[in-house]
Fold this protein.
Amino acid sequence: MERTQFHSPSPLPSIFGRLPPVTTPGQPITGQHRESLRAGLLTIPLAGVVGWALGSRRTGLAAGGLAALALGALRWQMSRWFCESPAYTVDGRIGDIELRTYPSIVEARAELESHSLEEALNLGFSRLACYVFGANTTDEDITMTTPVLTSLQDGMYMMSIAMPPGRTLPSLPEPDDPRVVLREVPVRRFAVLRFAGRFSHENVSQHERRLLREVVDLGLVTRGSARFAMYDSPATLPVLRRNEVWLEIV
């Protein structure tokens, strides 16, 4: 199993001592999301009480049941609210473009033998999900994070996800699938454009072109190919999805 690490080109002075291992810093679930869930939970008994007051016990139970189903559907559709993401700093916003800096993280990545974006998304997510859900040397369930990143490099699609906050490369189990690789990634800066809609080549390419035009107009220098950041599952309604395209800037 390959584990890739980036090393400094020359040894650091001894006064710095031994550097700590790279860990993925977490972006905590916001209080707004917790409050939304708490408020939703309160609607279940409230709906039952209102239904009971306006009708009968049966009406109250039905109203409470419908409220519970609605909350469950919302929780399912907005599952990204309850997933951790790598922390980042926002360096600025220019129109719809956000400039971000991501610190060093640990990620799992897989190269994919796919000829289309849609096929790559299905294949890549399957491989990485198998790893985090127990297909590893210790049968460990690893917390899933967002977003899932997909890019096209040298004619090959590649998908990656950040490992949970606090996990270092040595602390992670090795994947059972040799096509999944763990590695440390250095600090990077990105220009980011957010959009909604389907996980289709047409939708992603349209926003990639827009982001590239904006970046060129701003005089920013880019490195590598664009990345498609997917925050939601295919079960989420397209209008509710959070999608992004990223371009690394130097």
Summary: The chain has two domains: 31-77, 85-249. The chain has four helices and twelve strands.
